[in-house]
Structure formats: C-alpha cells, structure tokens
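Lab meeting prep.
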Amino acid sequence: MSESVEIDSKKLKVAYDGLDTLVTTVKGQAKMASDNTPVSLPSLEGSTFTGLMSWLEDQKPELKTRLDLAVLLDTKGTGHVTYSVDKDTLDNTKTMLGNALADRGKELMPGGDPKFVKAYNEILASYTTDGKVMSPMFQKLGPEGTLTVLSNVGQASVPPMSEDVEAKKRLMDLYRQGLGAASKEPGFPHESFADGLVKAATKDPEDYVGRGTTGYGLTSALSVLMYNGHFSDAFATDLATGLDKYERLDHKGTEHLWSGRPDAMGTDFLWDQMVPYEAGNITDDPMISMNSMLANSPNAALDFYDDNERQKYYIKDRTWQNDGYQSLSHVLDVATTDPDIVKGPHAKDAAELAGATVNLLSQRRGSVEDMRTFIDDMHGDSAKNFAHILGTYMVGADQAVNGGTYAYKDGVDPSQSTSVTMDAFGNVVNIPLFDKDALAKFGVAAMSTEDGMLELRNATNRYESQKLGGLANLITHPKDGVDGEMALQKGISENAHLEGLFLKANGDVAIAEGKEKDEAIGKWIDMGESVVGLVKIPGVEGMAEGTAKDIVNLAIDEGKSSGVDTLKEKLAHYEKDATKKSNGDVESAVEQQQYNTAVSLYESDLASHPEKLENSPLFKDGQMLSYNEYKQLSDGEQSTVRSNLYGGLNGVGNHWDPNEYKEDLKSDFHDYFG
C-alpha cells in the first residue's frame, strides 16, 4: 500500500540548512577544543561522539534528496508538494528524484532561455555520481530522449544575447558523468540502452527531415555524450560495437557517412563549444568520441580492437583527419600499455595489438620517404602515443632488427606474438612480432615530434642499459651452459643495430618533413646519454617467475614519459652545428655509444682494476663523468680516459672490443655513412 508524503519545501530547507550549520559548527568547535587542550578529551574522541556526528551526517542526504524532489515536483511554485510512494525510504525517494530530473530535462526547449538550464544544473550536479538517482533518470528519459535533451540544449539560444555557453556545456558534462554512474549501477540495461543510443543517432534522415526539429542533432549529441566518457566496460563495449556495426559492417565505411547527415550540417548548434578544442571535429565523426570513451576503459578498448578485421579497418584504412589520429593513437596506447592489462591474463592480446598497430599503420604509405602526408595529418600527442607503444615493447623492436623473420603482407595475420629466451632477461613472453620495414616506417611517425622522439629515446636508453646490465651479470655470475663473454658481445652488437635503425629513422623523419636530417640525427644522438646509476639487474638465474616480463616492458612501472624531463632539458640546450655532416653524426653516435657501453660494463663490475679508473680523469670529485662532461675534457685527457676505460689492463677491454660497435651500427645506417 502506497504512502502519501507531504513536504513544505521552505520549512524543509530551513531544517536542512540548520542541520548543515550544526554539523559544521560542532565539528569546528570539537577540533578547536582538541587542538588547544593539552590533555585528552575522551568525550570528543570516543565512539559516542563520532557515532553521533556520523548519524547527523547521514541525515543530510535524507533531507537534501527530499528537498530537491520537492523543488522539482513543485512546478507551480507553491512551496508545498504531495506525492505517493510505496514506502518512504531514501532509495525510493532517489528513484522518484531520478524520474523528476528526467521530466524536468524534457522541458528544456530548443533555443530556450539558459536560466532554466542553470537551475536544472544546480540540482542535477549533486547526483551525477549517484547511480540510484541516475539510473532511473536515464531509464525514464530513454536513449532517444537523452539525446533529445542534449540536442535541445545544444541549439543556440534565441535571442542570442541570452546565450550561456558555460551552462550548456556544464549540462553536457553532467549528463556524461551521470550516464557513467548509471551504466555502473546494478540492473541498468546497458545493452539495450547503448543499442537505443546508436539507433537514435543513426535514424534515417527521411524519418525526420522536414518534419520539425525532432531528429536533428542526435548524432552530434551522442558524440558529445561519449567524448571522454567514463562508462562501465560493458556499456562502452556495447556502444562501440553498435557504432562499428553501423559504419564498418552496414555501410562498408562509406565516405562522408557521418558528415553527410543533415544534423551535422546546421549552424544553429553550439557543438564545437561543448568539447575542448583538441577533441577535433567530433560533430563530423563520432568515432573520435568512441575512441576517447574506450581510452577510459582499457579492457573495453582491448576487447574492441582485439579483432583482425577491425584492426585493418580502423588502423590501416580509415581516415582520422578530423582529429589528426589523436583519438586512435590514444586508445591504442591505452589498450596495449595499461599496467593492469600488460601484467594480467590479457597481456598476449595487448602485445598482439601492439604488433598490429606497427604493422598496419605503416601500410598507409608505400615507403619510408613517403611518410610526409601521414606526418602532416598527425596532431597533438599522436606521435608521442605511438612512441610510447613502441617504447613499451622494445624487445619486439630488438627482435625485429636482429634477425627477425616475420614479414607482414596481405593474407598474413598482422597481430602475432611470440616468446623468446634472451641471455639478458631469460624467458620473455608476449613479444609482438614487428615487420622490420614496417617498424622503420612506424619509427618515422613516432619520432616526428620532439615529444615522440624524447619518449622513444628515453625508452631506448633504458632498454639498452638494462640489457647490458643483464648480460654483464652472466660474466660476474656465470650460468651453466651460457658463454657470458659471447652473450655480451652479441648483445652489444644487437644494441648497435637497434641504435642504427633509430638513427636512420630520425634522418628519414627529417627528409619526410623537408628538414635537415643532420639536425634530427644530431638531436637523437645528443639525447642518447645513458642514465648513470641505474639499478642493476639481477643475474638471470636469480630472477623470479615473471620478473623478466616486467623488466622488458620498460614503460609500465615507470609510467608514461618517466625520465623524459631530463632529456627535455638537454634538448632545450641543443644547438645545431651548421657544419655537421651525416658522417660526423655517425662518428658522434659511435663515440657516444662506445662510451656509454663501457660505462655500463664498468658499473656491472667488469673493469679489471676499477680502483685505477677511479684515480684517472674519468672521475671528478668521486663521480664518474657523464658523456657530455667527458667531451669537455682536453684531447689528451679524453685519450687517457679511453685507453684506461676501454683497455683491458684497467678497464673493460677484456670483455668488449669498442671498434666492433662501429661496423654493427654502420650496417643499419649505411644510407648516411660514407
């Protein structure tokens, strides 16, 4: 049997304000008494007091929810409202409040006075994180009703002088946040609601063109609603799947599918002011918003893109000029490098998607030199995102450069992974297979901005240093069946080949952008100084299960861009030498990497007489010189450092021949080597 509830909103507001003041005052007085009294005050610190304060706090939402419900139901402004409810509980009141918010939203008319939007926002804002209010609100609105509210609010106000863009944008943000809470509430019909949103946004224009305003703007409204939304994984997946079906399957990726819709052509909407500038033109392409939504749900993103046909369509074929690949690069970065994914049961899927990203994105242009158009199309953090993917899977790049046999072509699965046993790291699983030519082109894209170059340079520095550390441990801590000296030589050679590939890619970036390749190469070299004092890697035999996997996924624990700030500072002081030539760049790269390699071996305890090195010009004030500091020494002092550090008598020469590095790097950098 239903109960009748009568509320005097004015008296209830007085009661609520009084309770709020009481709680704030008592808490403040209690804190003041405790802070200014040198003895303990059990009456203020015991369970009785804290329990009372907790009870008072619990009454606030009880009163606030009923007060807001009364305000919404009191459409005539009488100050009194009566309603019936099965049982006057807080949950039932929240359901009624959600329904009332839906009804009030439907009353917001196209081009209406923004003051009504502001008043609506003031109540709505208190509940957008409460699924018990938001779920009934959106269910009563329904999918098309939800988009209609946004479409109505998104239209320019009449007269224009009454416009309040901030209030309208806030409503869009509140609806997005509220739908996120609703989607995570148990019992919310996420599948049917997502399906309804897609169907409403993709209605046949013949159903509404020329028949009033109903239907106009729903596509753009969905795009705004999705943009950077934080929804449940299930709801995000359902939405993305529905949009994918409409665009890729039903319409075969028809050109101008979205921008050709009537509601995307009007000038009466304020959509471009409802999202940040960097969002791109989402009005013409809701798939940008889809990617931004998926990027907030890493598991949903991986689930969506873990499909060969989708990979080929979205990564290789589809245009992303409306946002310069920002949303695609972001969602692929999240899906392939999220820490919980990379360390979880779907790590193999993430690695395979990373492989598909490199292998397919590189197919957009026929050659390395023909990347200029693609680079011009990329905006924002696109290059940095791509660099982060590659930097996370440096073992895959290492394997591709040093003897990899995988080659991508039509008919070959672009998303494959493998496991390898490496002398430096032991058994490493979930390594993406990169096509070497594709890797070179992807490197060009990834390093086409300074942020991208720094991201990849930092990852390369760490990977090469940690790999050398692991190999050096095989000499200081021999392992049965492994020739540590031979493994070290092989690893140094592999590092040189990897360095050569990226040096060449930097030159190709410059060519693609019509710039001086010497400057691009010079910057890469200048940023290549290894970080002295890295934590040593334990001998392979001392690694716990799974440790190797974590070591090679270098970007995971450190976080994106960790370590890049130091390189940025170096780059800020980089000065181009106008007389520098490619041959000189290669010599510089060789010299720098020789020094870095020798330092890494010294730090791994492979010097014959380290105490003599510490008394040489290699050290100053007890600290080993960085490469830049070494280069500031006189020619004679540099020669002394090299003979001591590189030689076998005192240094690391018994384990490494520095002259071999040059030939290894040369083989991958031959286009620029005289």
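Slide two material, second protein:
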Amino acid sequence: MANGFGKSEKAVVEEDWDVKLLRVNHPDYGEVFVAKLTSKWGGTDPIFCLPSDFHDSKRYKQLTNELMNKGRYSPYFDQLFIAYIDNLKRQGNYVTSDPDYDRFIASNTHRKLREEEADVFYRAIVEHVNNNPTVFPSRITNDFDDENSHGVTLDDEKSIKKFGRKTVAFVPSYLRDLLGISNTKKLNGVFEVLQERGVFIAVHSSQDRLLRSKTVRLVMLMYFTLTNRRLKLMPSSKPLKKLPTIGGKSRLLPFFISFLRYIIRRDNITGFLDLFGGGNIFIPQLRYFPPLSKFVYNDVDIGIVNLMTSFTEMTAAKATLDMAFWLQSEIQTEEAFHQARERRLSNFTPPIESAALTILIAEFSRAADRQTFCKENARQGISYRSLMRYLEFVPFLQGITIKCGSYDFFIRKFGHRSDFLTLLDPPYVGADCYESPFPDSEQEKMLRLINEVDMKIILCGTDNEIYDFLMKPRWHKTSLGPIPKSSSSSKGEVQVEYIWTNFIVPDFLLHSRWRYIHTL
C-alpha cells in the first residue's frame, strides 16, 4: 500500500491517466467533487466527471466512450478508477479551482443557453407559420408576392421527397424581424443548433429555382421542417406537464386555445392576464402568439407562485425538481404531509424548497386538492423522468410577470386597457374543496369590479345566481357543455361549464368539432 492506494490500482490508473480531484461549483449540483481525467497519450482535452457518473447508466455509457476514445481504458478498470478517486477524497487530496474546468463549464453553459434559445425561436417560427398560412403560399400555385409573402410552402412532389411534407422556405428579412434578433452572430448560433437537429437548412438562391417566375431575387432561402420528431414540439392544443389542480381547464384546452387566439388576433390584443393562474396552462400556449407582448400570471398561493417563478430560469427549475425528487421520501405519512403543507406556505421557507414541496403536495393529495393525503400516490412516488418534464415550462415562462397577490390589483391597474384580455378562473361558487377559500362576498365584489372595465374579460364557472349580475347586452353567457368534476368527493359526476364574456363568442368556435370535450 502506498499513500492509501493499492499497488496494482495505482499502476493501472496512472499508467495512462493523470487523475486530479476538484472540489468546485457545479451548475446543477452546487459544490461537489469532480474528477479531472487527462490522457497521458496527449492531444486531447481533459474529461470531467462526477464520481456518480460511474453508477449512472446513461452517463456511464458516455463516459466510457470518452475514456476509450481518448486513452487506454476498459470497463474492467471501473472499480480501479472508483477506488482511486475515493482514496483521493479520503486523503483530502483535491484542489478548489482549475482553469480547464472553468472553461469547460463556460462552454457547456453557453451551449445550453443556445439550445434553450433555439427551442424558443423554433417554436415562434412554427407558431407564425401555422397561424399565418396566407403569407406562405403554395409552391405549386407559385403565388409568391414579394411585398406580402413571408415565404413559400414547399408542397410540390420534389420538395416533399427532399424535405418532408411540413416544410417552408422563409425569406430571411422576415425571419430576422419575427425573432427580433439584430445580432448576426447570435442569429447564426441559433441556426447552427437548428441545423444540427435537422430542422433547418440554408441555401443560396442560385441553388434553387423557387421563384423562377418572379423578378425578386433572394440572397438566401431558409428551409424549416416543421416536425415534432426532432425537437419534440408541443402541438398547439396539447398541455405541457401539468401541475395537478382542482378545476383546471385541461379538458377544455382545445376550445380555449382556439377561442383565445381568435379574440387576440381579431381585437389586436397585446396583453394577457391569468389572475387565478393555478397550474398555468394558458400562458405557455399563447407565449409567442402575435401580437401579444405582455403576460401576467397571478395566484394567491405562494407555493405555486414560487414554483412558476423557478420555471423562469433553467438552473432554478432543475434545483426545484432535484429537491422534489429527494424530499418525496420524507412525505410518506399523513403527519409528514401536513407538516410539508405548512412549510410550503411559510414565508420562512426558501422559495426553491417551497416550490418543490408544492409539486409533492399536489401529487400526493387526493384529486389534487392539496389538503387530503393520498397514501397510494405517496407510496407510488414520482419518477425523476416525470419530474424533468416540468422543464418544458422554462422556454415559455421566461420574461413574463409572475405575482402572488389579489386579482383586483391587476383589474384596477389595467382595466382601462381595451387591448388587454383577462381570464378569471376563480374557485367555483359554493364549492368548499379549495385550499384558498373565495366566499360569495368576494365573488360579488369581483363582479362589481369587472363590470366597470374596458379590458376584455373571460370569467369561468358553473351556473349560479351570483353571476346573474352580469346581464345583457354588455355580458354574454356561453355554455361549454358538461365535463367531469375534479374534486375528491365527486368522482364520476359531471357539471356544465360556462364562460361569461363582455364580448360575443363567435358561433363557429362552438362548432361540433369541439363537442368532444363535453364527453371526456
């Protein structure tokens, strides 16, 4: 034994590798041990890995490939490397800074940011194409107009064979305006990521006769393949990973998204407010829908607000989900459940912990009421993979206003804005299943307030006498049909959902193609 190492262990490892142990800050895990493995064969960058990478099946495969490609290594050496690194820990033989590691983290962070930006911009492109078909005329008809068209839909046989059915050629100048990127280097970085994913290709006009009958000449055509396979794009009416809540409108989402987008475009709405935000299913669907530019999410539940705030930034979101994964083992009894309920709503609880506990309380309660412990849900737990799906929120919540307060503040502040649309989905009148009560007196106060504003209002609820205060001709009551009740004591029951609006709901939006929502 020499310095705590077995002779054969030390000889095998050090024959081909220079191994150093770092105790440094990791962007996902905070201060941790990191192994720096540098091949003595030379000519390659060092490999940085966490000790746990040898035990993580996905990362282990990547790590093994790196080690074998950069030096002499065999999976039979795994235990030797693990023991070598462990001995460095026991001896306290580590350093707290390393310039190579700093460069490695900076490079990876920059790449992640570029990929996140690429996700956001690609979704904006897809939304623009899907919602503006008239400015992307068919290639077959050759109706491109250099003054009004933004590109061309490649629907001819040759293009379909080459690119796939859902492909458009985009005029670069319109694309730059749509994305709002003036920095060419940044724009090229986004395109580079999209090109690697197989959804983008740039060609010079000399390589394509797309506009052969037109006088206009494009410097470059940008082809975008609108596919879900590569980027896992969310279809326009499919919800993201949803925080379970009582009274959520997921079953009505196909109608609501079509309805909201129609009103937003028809009335040139620039601001959207979701003032009883709950699980936040609407803003992500509208985030990049023009001409919207202002978004406000509000809820009175500090835990839910902390959760949504953490989803505005990738590092905070990952920290929240990691904490939720580890904390779930502590919430396996009714007593622990109610203690966690108190902690998540306490002003003394760190926001990340409050956010993590909010996920667990919602998942481990009966019918998502956040009040009644469900032992079966807690015993089943939440997989790490399922938790990671919440990261889908991040590109859509960056840059929006998230507040924890009363809805009336925003009604008073923006009520004069006729170009704003507010969605109000308060607790149902007379319901007693909500963690945060909203008594009849508050319902009446809300009705008096919204009756005086200029902004567009959509109020959701069930049939009740209190809402009869909203009378014609200013207000319009529309039935959306029966949907299942979501409270823990109402399994199998249905109720008719209504909306009250201070504008007319077009009949075609209530066409039979939406009626399937009534029977879900």
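Talking points for slide two:
The longest strand covers residues 17-26.
The chain has a mean pLDDT of 81.
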